[in-house]
Amino acid sequence: MKAYRVADIRSAEQVLLDAGEPLMMRASQGIASVIVRRLKQAGSPGHALYGRRILVLAGGGNNGGDALFAGAILARRGMQVDVLEAVPEHTHPEGLLAARRAGARIYRAPQDARSVTSLVEDLAVHADVWIDGLVGIGARGALRSNAATVVDALAECRRRGEVLPLAVAVDVPSGVDSDDGSVSGPAFQADVTVTMGASKPGLHLQPGRDYAGDVELVPLGYDAYLPDEPALVEPEPAQLASLLRLPDAHDHKYSRGVVGVMTGSERYPGAGILSVAGARAAGAGMVRYAAPHALSRIVVERFPDVVATAGRVQAWVIGSGIDMEGYAGQEAARRLQEALAEDQPVVLDAGALVLAQGADLSENIVLTPHAGEMTQLLASVGETLSREDVENAPARAARLAATATGATVMLKGSVDYICGSTGPLFVVGGAPAWRGTAGAGDVLAGLVGGLLARWASSRLGGGEHPDVSVAQVAALATALHGRAAAYASQTCGASNCPVPHKRAQRAVPGHPITALDVASSIPAAFDSLVQ
Questions:
Q1: pTM for this structure?
Q2: What's the rounded Cα separation, in Å, for the pair 219 and 47?
Q3: Distance between CA atoms of residues 480 and 430, nearest Å
Q4: Cα separation of 509 and 491, whole Å?
Q5: What pLDDT score does 153 carry?
Q6: Strand locations in 121-236, DSSP E?
Q7: What are residue 86's phi and psi, to 5 degrees?
Q8: Distance CA 272, CA 179 (A)
Q9: pLDDT for 492
Q10: Cα distance between residue 257 and residue 128, in whole Å
Q11: How does pLDDT run across 353-369, given as a tens digit for each residue?
Q12: CA-CA-CA-CA torsion for 315, 319, 325, 329, nearest 10 degrees?
Protein backbone atom coordinates (compact mmCIF):
# COMPACT_ATOMS: atom_id res chain seq x y z
CA MET A 1 0.00 0.00 0.00
CA LYS A 2 1.40 3.36 -1.07
CA ALA A 3 0.86 6.41 1.11
CA TYR A 4 1.03 10.06 0.05
CA ARG A 5 1.28 13.34 1.90
CA VAL A 6 -1.87 15.36 2.45
CA ALA A 7 -0.76 18.17 0.13
CA ASP A 8 -0.28 15.72 -2.74
CA ILE A 9 -3.66 14.10 -2.08
CA ARG A 10 -5.41 17.47 -1.94
CA SER A 11 -3.87 18.44 -5.26
CA ALA A 12 -4.94 15.17 -6.93
CA GLU A 13 -8.47 15.43 -5.51
CA GLN A 14 -8.88 18.93 -6.80
CA VAL A 15 -8.41 17.82 -10.40
CA LEU A 16 -11.47 15.56 -10.16
CA LEU A 17 -13.49 17.99 -8.06
CA ASP A 18 -12.96 20.68 -10.70
CA ALA A 19 -14.26 18.17 -13.25
CA GLY A 20 -17.43 17.67 -11.20
CA GLU A 21 -16.68 14.12 -10.06
CA PRO A 22 -18.87 12.98 -7.09
CA LEU A 23 -15.99 11.99 -4.80
CA MET A 24 -18.01 12.24 -1.58
CA MET A 25 -20.63 9.82 -2.91
CA ARG A 26 -17.94 7.30 -3.84
CA ALA A 27 -16.29 7.68 -0.45
CA SER A 28 -19.52 7.23 1.52
CA GLN A 29 -20.51 4.19 -0.51
CA GLY A 30 -17.09 2.71 0.19
CA ILE A 31 -17.45 3.29 3.94
CA ALA A 32 -20.91 1.71 3.99
CA SER A 33 -19.69 -1.30 1.99
CA VAL A 34 -16.81 -1.93 4.38
CA ILE A 35 -19.15 -1.77 7.39
CA VAL A 36 -21.68 -4.17 5.84
CA ARG A 37 -18.94 -6.62 4.89
CA ARG A 38 -17.35 -6.46 8.33
CA LEU A 39 -20.66 -7.05 10.08
CA LYS A 40 -21.34 -10.05 7.87
CA GLN A 41 -17.84 -11.43 8.52
CA ALA A 42 -18.52 -11.07 12.24
CA GLY A 43 -21.45 -13.47 11.90
CA SER A 44 -24.36 -11.27 10.88
CA PRO A 45 -26.06 -12.63 7.73
CA GLY A 46 -27.64 -10.13 5.40
CA HIS A 47 -31.10 -10.24 6.96
CA ALA A 48 -29.62 -9.77 10.46
CA LEU A 49 -28.18 -6.38 9.46
CA TYR A 50 -31.66 -4.93 9.81
CA GLY A 51 -31.95 -3.01 13.05
CA ARG A 52 -28.24 -2.84 13.81
CA ARG A 53 -27.34 0.39 15.63
CA ILE A 54 -24.92 2.84 14.00
CA LEU A 55 -23.45 5.90 15.75
CA VAL A 56 -22.14 8.56 13.37
CA LEU A 57 -19.77 11.06 15.00
CA ALA A 58 -19.94 14.03 12.64
CA GLY A 59 -17.54 16.93 12.82
CA GLY A 60 -17.05 19.64 10.26
CA GLY A 61 -15.60 19.34 6.78
CA ASN A 62 -15.58 16.59 4.20
CA ASN A 63 -14.80 13.74 6.60
CA GLY A 64 -17.96 14.59 8.50
CA GLY A 65 -19.83 14.67 5.20
CA ASP A 66 -18.46 11.26 4.20
CA ALA A 67 -19.60 9.80 7.53
CA LEU A 68 -23.08 11.37 7.26
CA PHE A 69 -23.71 10.14 3.74
CA ALA A 70 -22.48 6.67 4.77
CA GLY A 71 -24.93 6.79 7.67
CA ALA A 72 -27.73 7.67 5.26
CA ILE A 73 -26.87 4.65 3.08
CA LEU A 74 -26.89 2.33 6.11
CA ALA A 75 -30.19 3.79 7.33
CA ARG A 76 -31.77 3.03 3.97
CA ARG A 77 -30.62 -0.57 4.45
CA GLY A 78 -32.75 -0.80 7.58
CA MET A 79 -30.19 0.04 10.24
CA GLN A 80 -30.89 2.43 13.12
CA VAL A 81 -28.61 5.42 12.73
CA ASP A 82 -27.87 8.02 15.40
CA VAL A 83 -25.93 11.12 14.42
CA LEU A 84 -24.04 13.22 16.94
CA GLU A 85 -23.21 16.70 15.67
CA ALA A 86 -20.01 17.31 17.59
CA VAL A 87 -19.68 20.89 16.36
CA PRO A 88 -23.22 21.76 15.17
CA GLU A 89 -22.30 25.06 13.55
CA HIS A 90 -19.85 23.28 11.22
CA THR A 91 -21.78 20.12 10.32
CA HIS A 92 -21.77 19.29 6.60
CA PRO A 93 -25.25 20.55 5.57
CA GLU A 94 -25.92 18.24 2.61
CA GLY A 95 -24.72 15.20 4.53
CA LEU A 96 -26.88 16.09 7.53
CA LEU A 97 -29.92 16.53 5.30
CA ALA A 98 -29.33 13.16 3.63
CA ALA A 99 -29.03 11.42 7.01
CA ARG A 100 -32.19 13.08 8.33
CA ARG A 101 -34.18 12.17 5.19
CA ALA A 102 -33.02 8.55 5.52
CA GLY A 103 -34.48 8.38 9.02
CA ALA A 104 -31.41 9.01 11.18
CA ARG A 105 -31.94 10.54 14.62
CA ILE A 106 -29.94 13.74 15.03
CA TYR A 107 -28.38 14.84 18.33
CA ARG A 108 -26.61 18.16 18.79
CA ALA A 109 -23.72 18.23 21.24
CA PRO A 110 -24.48 20.33 24.36
CA GLN A 111 -22.38 23.30 25.36
CA ASP A 112 -20.65 21.84 28.44
CA ALA A 113 -18.21 18.92 28.45
CA ARG A 114 -20.01 16.94 31.16
CA SER A 115 -23.25 16.89 29.17
CA VAL A 116 -21.37 15.91 26.01
CA THR A 117 -19.79 12.98 27.83
CA SER A 118 -23.14 11.83 29.18
CA LEU A 119 -24.79 12.00 25.74
CA VAL A 120 -21.93 10.19 23.99
CA GLU A 121 -21.95 7.39 26.54
CA ASP A 122 -25.73 6.97 26.25
CA LEU A 123 -25.50 6.66 22.48
CA ALA A 124 -22.27 4.64 22.32
CA VAL A 125 -23.26 1.81 24.67
CA HIS A 126 -26.19 0.85 22.44
CA ALA A 127 -24.32 1.05 19.12
CA ASP A 128 -22.92 -1.87 17.11
CA VAL A 129 -20.77 0.44 14.98
CA TRP A 130 -19.07 3.76 15.68
CA ILE A 131 -18.16 5.90 12.66
CA ASP A 132 -15.52 8.53 13.36
CA GLY A 133 -15.94 11.57 11.11
CA LEU A 134 -14.91 14.14 13.71
CA VAL A 135 -11.94 15.79 11.96
CA GLY A 136 -10.37 15.67 8.52
CA ILE A 137 -6.93 14.81 7.16
CA GLY A 138 -5.81 18.41 7.39
CA ALA A 139 -6.11 18.55 11.19
CA ARG A 140 -2.90 19.13 13.12
CA GLY A 141 -2.08 18.88 16.81
CA ALA A 142 -4.32 17.79 19.65
CA LEU A 143 -8.09 17.52 19.27
CA ARG A 144 -9.97 20.54 20.58
CA SER A 145 -13.21 21.14 22.50
CA ASN A 146 -16.00 18.67 21.79
CA ALA A 147 -13.94 16.35 19.56
CA ALA A 148 -11.54 15.58 22.42
CA THR A 149 -14.43 15.12 24.85
CA VAL A 150 -16.18 12.70 22.48
CA VAL A 151 -13.04 10.58 21.96
CA ASP A 152 -12.35 10.47 25.70
CA ALA A 153 -15.92 9.35 26.39
CA LEU A 154 -15.70 6.55 23.82
CA ALA A 155 -12.41 5.36 25.29
CA GLU A 156 -13.97 5.29 28.74
CA CYS A 157 -16.85 3.14 27.43
CA ARG A 158 -14.34 0.65 26.13
CA ARG A 159 -12.26 0.70 29.30
CA ARG A 160 -15.34 -0.17 31.34
CA GLY A 161 -16.02 -3.09 29.02
CA GLU A 162 -19.59 -2.00 28.39
CA VAL A 163 -19.41 -2.32 24.61
CA LEU A 164 -17.47 -4.10 21.89
CA PRO A 165 -18.45 -2.15 18.77
CA LEU A 166 -16.90 -2.10 15.33
CA ALA A 167 -15.00 1.20 15.43
CA VAL A 168 -14.55 2.68 11.95
CA ALA A 169 -12.43 5.76 11.21
CA VAL A 170 -13.06 7.83 8.09
CA ASP A 171 -9.78 8.51 6.26
CA VAL A 172 -7.64 8.86 9.44
CA PRO A 173 -8.57 8.33 13.12
CA SER A 174 -9.34 11.66 14.75
CA GLY A 175 -6.34 12.82 16.76
CA VAL A 176 -3.75 11.16 14.45
CA ASP A 177 -1.64 13.41 12.22
CA SER A 178 -2.12 12.28 8.62
CA ASP A 179 1.44 13.00 7.50
CA ASP A 180 3.61 11.80 10.38
CA GLY A 181 1.37 9.64 12.59
CA SER A 182 1.97 11.79 15.67
CA VAL A 183 -0.63 11.80 18.46
CA SER A 184 -0.69 14.83 20.75
CA GLY A 185 -3.66 13.93 22.94
CA PRO A 186 -6.74 11.70 22.85
CA ALA A 187 -7.25 9.83 19.56
CA PHE A 188 -9.98 7.58 18.20
CA GLN A 189 -9.09 3.88 18.48
CA ALA A 190 -10.27 2.24 15.25
CA ASP A 191 -10.67 -1.40 14.34
CA VAL A 192 -10.58 -0.40 10.69
CA THR A 193 -9.75 2.83 8.92
CA VAL A 194 -11.43 3.36 5.57
CA THR A 195 -9.09 5.74 3.77
CA MET A 196 -10.08 7.60 0.63
CA GLY A 197 -8.29 7.70 -2.71
CA ALA A 198 -4.83 6.97 -1.36
CA SER A 199 -3.43 5.99 2.00
CA LYS A 200 -1.80 8.51 4.33
CA PRO A 201 1.61 8.07 6.00
CA GLY A 202 0.15 8.56 9.48
CA LEU A 203 -1.78 5.29 9.13
CA HIS A 204 1.48 3.37 8.78
CA LEU A 205 3.81 5.25 11.13
CA GLN A 206 3.85 4.80 14.87
CA PRO A 207 2.09 5.75 17.02
CA GLY A 208 -0.67 6.52 14.50
CA ARG A 209 -0.73 2.99 13.06
CA ASP A 210 -1.59 1.67 16.52
CA TYR A 211 -4.87 3.65 16.34
CA ALA A 212 -5.71 2.82 12.71
CA GLY A 213 -6.42 -0.91 12.93
CA ASP A 214 -6.74 -2.50 9.49
CA VAL A 215 -6.47 -0.02 6.64
CA GLU A 216 -8.91 -0.40 3.76
CA LEU A 217 -8.59 1.77 0.68
CA VAL A 218 -11.54 3.17 -1.29
CA PRO A 219 -10.26 4.16 -4.76
CA LEU A 220 -11.52 7.51 -5.98
CA GLY A 221 -9.89 7.54 -9.40
CA TYR A 222 -7.15 10.14 -9.03
CA ASP A 223 -4.11 7.83 -8.98
CA ALA A 224 -2.79 9.34 -12.21
CA TYR A 225 -2.52 12.74 -10.54
CA LEU A 226 -0.44 11.58 -7.58
CA PRO A 227 3.38 11.91 -7.54
CA ASP A 228 5.39 9.08 -9.10
CA GLU A 229 7.13 8.45 -5.80
CA PRO A 230 4.97 7.88 -2.70
CA ALA A 231 6.01 9.15 0.72
CA LEU A 232 5.79 5.65 2.13
CA VAL A 233 5.22 2.03 1.07
CA GLU A 234 3.90 -0.77 3.26
CA PRO A 235 4.44 -3.88 1.12
CA GLU A 236 1.68 -6.44 0.78
CA PRO A 237 2.53 -10.19 0.56
CA ALA A 238 2.05 -10.30 -3.22
CA GLN A 239 4.56 -7.48 -3.66
CA LEU A 240 7.04 -9.23 -1.38
CA ALA A 241 6.57 -12.51 -3.23
CA SER A 242 7.50 -10.78 -6.49
CA LEU A 243 10.93 -10.04 -4.99
CA LEU A 244 11.69 -13.69 -4.23
CA ARG A 245 14.32 -15.09 -6.60
CA LEU A 246 13.82 -18.82 -7.03
CA PRO A 247 16.68 -20.94 -8.44
CA ASP A 248 16.28 -22.66 -11.80
CA ALA A 249 17.93 -25.65 -13.43
CA HIS A 250 20.96 -23.58 -14.48
CA ASP A 251 21.77 -22.28 -11.00
CA HIS A 252 24.58 -23.57 -8.79
CA LYS A 253 25.95 -22.61 -5.39
CA TYR A 254 27.96 -19.68 -6.73
CA SER A 255 25.24 -18.24 -8.97
CA ARG A 256 22.82 -18.38 -6.02
CA GLY A 257 25.10 -16.03 -4.11
CA VAL A 258 27.86 -16.38 -1.55
CA VAL A 259 27.53 -14.41 1.68
CA GLY A 260 30.44 -13.68 3.96
CA VAL A 261 29.69 -13.52 7.68
CA MET A 262 32.04 -11.85 10.16
CA THR A 263 30.24 -12.03 13.49
CA GLY A 264 30.65 -13.45 16.99
CA SER A 265 33.59 -13.55 19.37
CA GLU A 266 34.90 -15.64 22.23
CA ARG A 267 32.72 -13.55 24.51
CA TYR A 268 29.64 -13.82 22.28
CA PRO A 269 29.97 -17.03 20.25
CA GLY A 270 26.19 -17.32 19.97
CA ALA A 271 26.06 -14.20 17.77
CA GLY A 272 28.09 -16.04 15.16
CA ILE A 273 25.81 -19.08 15.25
CA LEU A 274 22.64 -16.98 15.03
CA SER A 275 23.75 -14.70 12.20
CA VAL A 276 24.99 -17.70 10.20
CA ALA A 277 21.64 -19.41 10.83
CA GLY A 278 19.87 -16.40 9.32
CA ALA A 279 22.22 -16.27 6.33
CA ARG A 280 21.77 -20.00 5.63
CA ALA A 281 17.99 -19.67 5.74
CA ALA A 282 18.04 -16.92 3.09
CA GLY A 283 18.77 -19.48 0.39
CA ALA A 284 22.25 -18.29 -0.58
CA GLY A 285 24.36 -20.95 -2.27
CA MET A 286 27.16 -20.72 0.28
CA VAL A 287 27.98 -19.10 3.60
CA ARG A 288 31.62 -18.22 4.28
CA TYR A 289 32.41 -17.63 7.94
CA ALA A 290 35.33 -15.37 8.82
CA ALA A 291 36.43 -15.71 12.45
CA PRO A 292 39.31 -17.08 14.55
CA HIS A 293 39.79 -20.85 14.35
CA ALA A 294 38.26 -21.64 17.74
CA LEU A 295 35.08 -19.76 16.90
CA SER A 296 34.92 -21.13 13.37
CA ARG A 297 35.09 -24.65 14.74
CA ILE A 298 32.05 -24.01 16.95
CA VAL A 299 30.03 -22.64 14.03
CA VAL A 300 31.08 -25.36 11.56
CA GLU A 301 30.29 -28.09 14.07
CA ARG A 302 26.78 -26.66 14.29
CA PHE A 303 26.46 -26.08 10.51
CA PRO A 304 28.76 -28.44 8.52
CA ASP A 305 27.84 -26.76 5.20
CA VAL A 306 29.45 -23.48 6.30
CA VAL A 307 32.85 -22.79 4.73
CA ALA A 308 35.49 -21.32 7.05
CA THR A 309 38.04 -20.38 4.40
CA ALA A 310 38.63 -17.12 2.53
CA GLY A 311 37.15 -16.65 -0.93
CA ARG A 312 34.94 -14.54 -3.13
CA VAL A 313 31.62 -13.31 -1.70
CA GLN A 314 28.78 -11.19 -3.07
CA ALA A 315 27.76 -9.59 0.24
CA TRP A 316 29.01 -9.27 3.82
CA VAL A 317 27.36 -9.38 7.24
CA ILE A 318 29.60 -7.70 9.80
CA GLY A 319 29.23 -6.86 13.43
CA SER A 320 26.96 -9.03 15.55
CA GLY A 321 28.97 -9.82 18.68
CA ILE A 322 32.47 -8.94 17.40
CA ASP A 323 35.03 -7.01 19.46
CA MET A 324 35.45 -3.74 17.58
CA GLU A 325 38.32 -2.65 19.84
CA GLY A 326 40.65 -5.47 18.77
CA TYR A 327 41.96 -7.08 15.61
CA ALA A 328 38.44 -8.04 14.54
CA GLY A 329 37.47 -4.37 14.45
CA GLN A 330 40.39 -3.59 12.15
CA GLU A 331 39.44 -6.48 9.86
CA ALA A 332 35.83 -5.30 9.81
CA ALA A 333 36.92 -1.80 8.74
CA ARG A 334 39.16 -3.26 6.02
CA ARG A 335 36.40 -5.47 4.63
CA LEU A 336 33.98 -2.56 4.60
CA GLN A 337 36.40 -0.44 2.57
CA GLU A 338 37.01 -3.29 0.12
CA ALA A 339 33.27 -3.78 -0.28
CA LEU A 340 32.75 -0.05 -0.88
CA ALA A 341 35.47 -0.10 -3.55
CA GLU A 342 33.77 -3.04 -5.30
CA ASP A 343 30.22 -1.73 -4.72
CA GLN A 344 29.28 -4.85 -2.73
CA PRO A 345 26.36 -4.92 -0.31
CA VAL A 346 27.31 -5.00 3.38
CA VAL A 347 25.13 -5.33 6.48
CA LEU A 348 26.60 -3.48 9.47
CA ASP A 349 24.98 -4.67 12.70
CA ALA A 350 25.45 -4.02 16.42
CA GLY A 351 29.03 -2.98 17.25
CA ALA A 352 29.98 -2.52 13.59
CA LEU A 353 27.62 0.44 13.36
CA VAL A 354 30.54 2.57 14.57
CA LEU A 355 32.06 2.08 11.11
CA ALA A 356 29.32 4.33 9.73
CA GLN A 357 30.60 7.29 11.73
CA GLY A 358 32.33 9.70 9.39
CA ALA A 359 32.29 7.21 6.50
CA ASP A 360 31.13 8.01 2.99
CA LEU A 361 28.71 5.13 2.47
CA SER A 362 26.44 4.08 -0.36
CA GLU A 363 22.92 2.67 -0.31
CA ASN A 364 24.45 -0.80 -0.74
CA ILE A 365 25.44 -0.57 2.93
CA VAL A 366 22.61 -1.55 5.30
CA LEU A 367 22.69 -0.24 8.88
CA THR A 368 20.47 -2.13 11.33
CA PRO A 369 20.16 -0.11 14.56
CA HIS A 370 17.49 -0.43 17.21
CA ALA A 371 16.27 2.77 18.89
CA GLY A 372 19.13 2.95 21.40
CA GLU A 373 21.78 2.40 18.75
CA MET A 374 20.06 4.94 16.52
CA THR A 375 20.56 7.71 19.08
CA GLN A 376 24.30 6.96 19.12
CA LEU A 377 24.49 6.81 15.34
CA LEU A 378 22.70 10.14 14.94
CA ALA A 379 24.81 11.75 17.65
CA SER A 380 27.94 10.78 15.70
CA VAL A 381 26.66 12.80 12.72
CA GLY A 382 25.58 15.80 14.77
CA GLU A 383 21.88 14.99 15.29
CA THR A 384 20.86 14.96 18.96
CA LEU A 385 17.79 12.78 19.50
CA SER A 386 16.84 10.89 22.64
CA ARG A 387 15.60 7.32 22.55
CA GLU A 388 12.11 8.68 23.21
CA ASP A 389 12.48 11.02 20.21
CA VAL A 390 13.41 8.08 18.00
CA GLU A 391 10.52 5.94 19.24
CA ASN A 392 8.00 8.78 18.84
CA ALA A 393 9.12 9.65 15.28
CA PRO A 394 10.90 6.55 13.89
CA ALA A 395 10.40 7.48 10.24
CA ARG A 396 12.09 10.83 10.74
CA ALA A 397 14.99 9.20 12.61
CA ALA A 398 15.51 6.58 9.89
CA ARG A 399 15.51 9.20 7.14
CA LEU A 400 17.88 11.46 9.09
CA ALA A 401 20.35 8.59 9.52
CA ALA A 402 20.10 7.54 5.87
CA THR A 403 20.61 11.10 4.64
CA ALA A 404 23.55 11.75 6.98
CA THR A 405 25.40 8.50 6.17
CA GLY A 406 24.33 7.81 2.59
CA ALA A 407 23.46 4.24 3.62
CA THR A 408 20.25 2.23 3.67
CA VAL A 409 18.89 2.23 7.22
CA MET A 410 16.71 -0.42 8.84
CA LEU A 411 15.43 0.91 12.16
CA LYS A 412 14.34 -2.19 14.09
CA GLY A 413 11.42 -2.36 16.50
CA SER A 414 7.91 -3.70 16.78
CA VAL A 415 7.54 -2.08 13.36
CA ASP A 416 10.59 -1.87 11.10
CA TYR A 417 11.38 1.25 9.03
CA ILE A 418 13.66 0.93 6.01
CA CYS A 419 14.86 3.68 3.70
CA GLY A 420 17.78 5.02 1.74
CA SER A 421 18.76 8.65 1.44
CA THR A 422 16.46 8.76 -1.60
CA GLY A 423 13.37 6.79 -2.55
CA PRO A 424 10.33 5.88 -0.46
CA LEU A 425 10.26 4.75 3.14
CA PHE A 426 9.29 1.08 3.57
CA VAL A 427 7.30 0.11 6.64
CA VAL A 428 6.98 -3.53 7.72
CA GLY A 429 4.88 -4.42 10.75
CA GLY A 430 2.81 -7.26 12.10
CA ALA A 431 5.53 -9.36 13.73
CA PRO A 432 4.38 -10.89 17.03
CA ALA A 433 5.73 -9.42 20.26
CA TRP A 434 7.40 -12.78 20.94
CA ARG A 435 9.95 -11.81 18.26
CA GLY A 436 11.56 -9.45 20.76
CA THR A 437 14.00 -12.01 22.13
CA ALA A 438 17.80 -12.12 22.53
CA GLY A 439 19.58 -12.86 19.28
CA ALA A 440 16.64 -12.23 16.95
CA GLY A 441 18.47 -9.21 15.54
CA ASP A 442 21.52 -11.37 14.78
CA VAL A 443 19.31 -13.74 12.78
CA LEU A 444 17.80 -10.78 10.91
CA ALA A 445 21.24 -9.38 10.01
CA GLY A 446 22.25 -12.74 8.55
CA LEU A 447 18.97 -13.00 6.66
CA VAL A 448 19.41 -9.54 5.10
CA GLY A 449 22.96 -10.39 4.05
CA GLY A 450 21.96 -13.72 2.57
CA LEU A 451 19.20 -12.13 0.47
CA LEU A 452 21.53 -9.36 -0.67
CA ALA A 453 24.09 -11.95 -1.80
CA ARG A 454 21.39 -13.67 -3.86
CA TRP A 455 20.51 -10.42 -5.61
CA ALA A 456 23.97 -8.89 -5.91
CA SER A 457 24.89 -10.42 -9.27
CA SER A 458 21.44 -10.37 -10.83
CA ARG A 459 18.80 -7.89 -9.67
CA LEU A 460 21.12 -5.37 -8.07
CA GLY A 461 23.68 -5.75 -10.84
CA GLY A 462 21.43 -4.86 -13.74
CA GLY A 463 19.96 -8.27 -14.51
CA GLU A 464 16.43 -9.40 -13.73
CA HIS A 465 14.38 -6.50 -12.27
CA PRO A 466 17.35 -4.11 -12.00
CA ASP A 467 15.11 -1.46 -10.43
CA VAL A 468 14.86 -3.41 -7.17
CA SER A 469 16.60 -1.43 -4.44
CA VAL A 470 18.58 -2.56 -1.43
CA ALA A 471 15.83 -1.07 0.74
CA GLN A 472 13.27 -3.36 -0.92
CA VAL A 473 15.43 -6.42 -0.31
CA ALA A 474 15.86 -5.38 3.33
CA ALA A 475 12.07 -4.95 3.61
CA LEU A 476 11.61 -8.47 2.24
CA ALA A 477 14.07 -9.77 4.85
CA THR A 478 12.30 -8.21 7.81
CA ALA A 479 8.91 -9.35 6.50
CA LEU A 480 10.21 -12.94 6.28
CA HIS A 481 11.68 -12.56 9.76
CA GLY A 482 8.31 -11.41 11.17
CA ARG A 483 6.45 -14.22 9.42
CA ALA A 484 8.95 -16.74 10.74
CA ALA A 485 8.36 -15.45 14.27
CA ALA A 486 4.59 -15.81 13.72
CA TYR A 487 5.05 -19.42 12.63
CA ALA A 488 7.42 -20.21 15.48
CA SER A 489 5.22 -18.67 18.18
CA GLN A 490 1.91 -19.77 16.62
CA THR A 491 0.39 -16.35 17.16
CA CYS A 492 -2.34 -16.60 14.55
CA GLY A 493 -5.28 -18.81 13.70
CA ALA A 494 -4.64 -22.03 11.82
CA SER A 495 -6.82 -20.94 8.90
CA ASN A 496 -4.77 -17.86 8.10
CA CYS A 497 -1.36 -18.40 9.69
CA PRO A 498 0.67 -16.36 9.31
CA VAL A 499 -0.70 -13.02 8.25
CA PRO A 500 1.61 -10.55 10.03
CA HIS A 501 0.85 -7.92 7.39
CA LYS A 502 -2.69 -7.82 8.79
CA ARG A 503 -2.99 -5.75 11.94
CA ALA A 504 -6.29 -7.02 13.34
CA GLN A 505 -5.37 -10.67 13.61
CA ARG A 506 -7.33 -13.24 15.52
CA ALA A 507 -6.36 -12.92 19.18
CA VAL A 508 -4.08 -15.94 19.64
CA PRO A 509 -1.55 -15.46 22.45
CA GLY A 510 1.08 -17.86 21.10
CA HIS A 511 4.05 -19.01 23.15
CA PRO A 512 7.66 -17.99 23.88
CA ILE A 513 10.30 -18.56 21.20
CA THR A 514 14.06 -18.23 20.86
CA ALA A 515 16.09 -16.66 18.09
CA LEU A 516 16.96 -20.10 16.70
CA ASP A 517 13.24 -20.89 16.55
CA VAL A 518 12.85 -17.85 14.30
CA ALA A 519 15.74 -18.96 12.08
CA SER A 520 14.32 -22.49 11.82
CA SER A 521 10.94 -21.10 10.71
CA ILE A 522 12.28 -18.89 7.90
CA PRO A 523 11.88 -21.64 5.23
CA ALA A 524 8.19 -21.97 6.18
CA ALA A 525 7.78 -18.19 5.96
CA PHE A 526 9.52 -18.22 2.59
CA ASP A 527 7.17 -20.97 1.38
CA SER A 528 4.10 -19.07 2.57
CA LEU A 529 5.05 -16.12 0.36
CA VAL A 530 5.80 -18.33 -2.63
CA GLN A 531 2.45 -20.08 -2.26
A1: 0.87
A2: 28
A3: 11
A4: 6
A5: 95
A6: 129-133, 166-170, 192-196, 214-218, 232-233
A7: -70, -40
A8: 40
A9: 66
A10: 54
A11: 999 988 889 999 999 99
A12: -10
